[in-house]
Each structure stands twice: as structure tokens, then as C-alpha cells.
Amino acid sequence: MCKLFIFVERVEGIQTVLRLNLVLCHTNGRNKDINLSKAMSQDGASQFQEVIRQELELSVKKELEKILVTAPSHEFEHTKKDLDGFRKLFHRFLQEKGPSVDWGKIQRPPEDSIQPYEKIKARGLPDNVSSVLNKLVVVKLNGGLGTSMGCKGPKSLIGVRNENTFLDLTVQQIEHLNKTYNTDVPLVLMNSFNTDEDTKKILQKYSHCRVKIYTFNQSRYPRINKESLLPVAKDVSYSGENTEAWYPPGHGDIYASFYNSGLLDIFIGEGKEYIFVSNIDNLGATVDLYILNHLMNPPNGKPCEFVMEVTNKTRADVKGGTLTQYEGKLRLVEIAQVPKAHVDEFKSVSKFKIFNTNNLWISLAAVKRLQEKNAIDMEIIVNPKTLDGGLNVIQLETAVGAAIKSFENSLGINVPRSRFLPVKTTSDLLLVMSNLYSLNAGSLTMSEKREFPTVPLVKLGSSFTKVQDYLRRFESIPDMLELDHLTVSGDVTFGKNVSLKGTVIIIANHGDRIDIPPGAVLENKIVSGNLRILDH
């Protein structure tokens, strides 16, 4: 019996090629060899590759069937939907050839396809704000863990301001809206299997808040071995040996999961028309009444099915996905899709001036229509990982914003930078915990005492990566109202009531320690060497 070895190679971003080295994988019997020789006798490698693809899909199908029979009866239907979704994604993955973007077809979007926020705001608000708010559902993407910041459990449960978590602030924002306008805007959390249990436990604390909270789960897809392209999972469990065998397949999964959960139909039945989707760690992503009014009362009478909030790039954002015109439609292009020869051009702030904030406003009726027609088209992101045991795997993902090209009359709105305030690192956390921002009803706003509207550039070294270590190194958060740039590296601690102004660079060399004394004012200073404050 022959064997087929399949190698997956990364080619210019998300695209893959199958390099097929003769012969048959995970199959037995003479018929398979005959199929192969038949393919080889026909003209060209394309038939050969097609046979291989078919064999591979059949092998994956069999593996998924073995996994499915291990599902408990109460999880069977849900697991079947997940595995069917994975099979469709895997099929598309095998069919794609070459780069997903033809660089020559990329054009700047037409002027009217990306509207300045000021123009949207100038239209004002309707007399009855509650009437438009009651058409809205807020959806937060809550599938991520806090592991990159050294925390266990869902990232949304990390304390970010006055001991309030991301989730606390979100609930406070929506409760404030509901109380102010006497409305019923619900909050929906898209959890993953990683975050669902812990999130549901904490939701009990909001039972007396004026916010209805719903949850649904992202799909759970099997990681696949990078060489064999077969699932590494042997059963449906995700404990023990199977802990790393499963993954949530990116936030592009929201369309299918939201539909499958039944919530989409429930909200449409209640008269809801739009969802506002954003990352739960983006503290700038609050409900904007002007954008909502624009959607509910379109100026040209044509309903807009999809709005993507974009904002101007800075040098820190050059890798962010950008909106382009492609084959007559708005299209989100991510850096992973860009051919290597054009990456520098993609990063150019002069040519591609805006990037996607992942704050999205989407028509519920359009999601239902497109989902039922299987017409939501999102590029596949191939994400390579190495498991703890050293096994190389890949996971197939999609991004929610990539679906913009599937919707009618889509629009970009160039919003102020204040609507993009993500907390990905402790450097970001320092900014939002500082006096640069004031907190009101769950929303952060830049302090009026800050003379510049821009946020300082903060780079904290590896000693600050984990939240626990970061908190231990600050007796209190410094005054940063006049700060432009802060770099900290090495074993550094800050006393109480420190003030940082202009450009401040603090570098403790290996083996040295720097203690910034209480009450210190550092303005345009470089501090290096060894400075320790000892109790007398």
C-alpha cells in the first residue's frame, strides 16, 4: 500500500498550497490505488490534486464521524452543527488556490463609501431617541482568555478601572442608556467554550441591573495536524489529552452561531433591527446614537445593511485591516492577505489612511437572509500553532468584518480615535487606569485637562507583562496628563504620586533595580543604572 504525505505551507499570508508527495493517505484497498493511477494517467496534476482532495475530505469526514459518536446525547445536535460547520470551512480551505486578493484590483474606496463621523453627527438626533434605541441589540465578543496578560479565565473579568471589569463597564453603559431613555437595549455575549462557564457564574451579580443579558457560544472546531491535515481530537471532550485539540474559530463565526442559537429569530420577532458588535476589551466601543440614527433613518432612503467604523492610522496601526474597493464592493483587506511584494505599500499611511476598529453595525434581517442562503463570504485565516507537546497544528478562522462584501449598501464611517481604545497589554491598561481618562456611567472619556487629544505612547517591558506584576510595581498610577512617551525596561517600581511629563525613558540593566521615589516629577528624563530607595 502506498502513502500520501501532505504538507501545508504558508504562502503570502492566509493562502495555502498542498504540496502532494505521492501516494495515498489513511486509505486502504486496491480501489484507492486505481483511482490514483487513473488520475496520474489523465492530463495534468489538477486531476491528481482533485483526487487527493476528495480522499482527504473523505478521511476528515470519517474522523469527524468518529468524534461525533462520542458526544453525550444532550450535546449531540450542537456538536453535529459545529462539526458540519468545520467540514464546510475545511472544504473551502482545500479549494482555495493562490492569494485571495489580486493586488491589481484593489482600489481606494469611493469618497461617499466612507463618511466622516462629523457628517453623520451633523444630522442630529431624532425627537424620540428611545424609538431608535429599542431597535438595537448590543453584542460583545467575549471569547478571549486573559492569558496574554497573565490572568486565568475570561479576559472580560480583568479589573481595568476602579476595580470595575470590562464586563462591569459594559453593563453600566447599557444600563445608563436604558434608564436615561426608558428603553430595553439587551446585551448579548458571544462566549467561547473557554469563557462560557466562568462568564455565566459572574452574570448573577447583574440580576438587579436594568439590562437583559443573553449569551450564546461560538462554535468549537477541531485543530488539525499540520502535516496530515486530520483532526488531532479523538473524542468530543476538551480535558486531559484533548485540552488543546479544540479552538473557537475566530469572531467571523458570529453569523452562524448567532443564527443557530435561536437568538437572531427571537430579536427579529421582538422588532429589533440592528446589532452593534464590538470587542469587549475595546473600552471606546460604546453605543453611538448618531450612527444608530443614521442607520434607522438613512438620508437616501436606502437601508444600509453593514457599517464598519474605521479610524485614521497612526504608525502603531500599520498592520490593521483596511477598507478598499474591490470588484465594485467595499472589502476589508487584512495584512495576512497581502502579497509580500506589496506589504510596505499596504502599511503606507499615505495610501491606506484608515483601519478597521471592529466596531460593526449589522442588519439582523440581512444576517438572516444571507445565512439561510449560505451567502456570507469570509476569507479563511490559517493560524499555525504549536501545542505544548511540540505538535504543529493549524486552525482555520474567519473575521467578522470580512463579511462586509456580502451585505448590500455597506458603509464605512471614519470615527474619532476615542472610539478605539483596546486593552491588549498592561501598557494599554496603564493608560486607561490613569488620570488621562475620567469614568462616567461605564464610559471612559479623555480628561479635559489633557492639552493634546492624542494618547501617549507607552511601552512597558517584560517585567510588567502580567497584571499581577504590573500592579505590584505601581504604588499608585502616575499622573500622566502631560506625558508624550514612556518607555520602561527592567526591574523598575514607582512610588506614590509620581508625575510623568514629556518623554520619559527608564531602563534598569540586568541585575540592577530602579525605584522611582514617591512624589518624583520626571519631565523629559532618561533614568538608567541602579536607584534603590530603602526604608530607614
From TrEMBL:
Transmembrane intervals: none
Reaction(s) this enzyme catalyzes, per UniProt: alpha-D-glucose 1-phosphate + UTP + H(+) = UDP-alpha-D-glucose + diphosphate
Binding-site list for substrate: 251
Gene Ontology terms, MF aspect: UTP:glucose-1-phosphate uridylyltransferase activity
Pathway info: Glycan biosynthesis; glycogen biosynthesis
Transferase listed as a keyword: yes
Keyword Transferase: yes
Keywords: Nucleotidyltransferase, Transferase
Record's subunit section: Homooctamer.
Name under which the protein is recorded: UTP--glucose-1-phosphate uridylyltransferase
Originating organism: Cnephaeus nilssonii
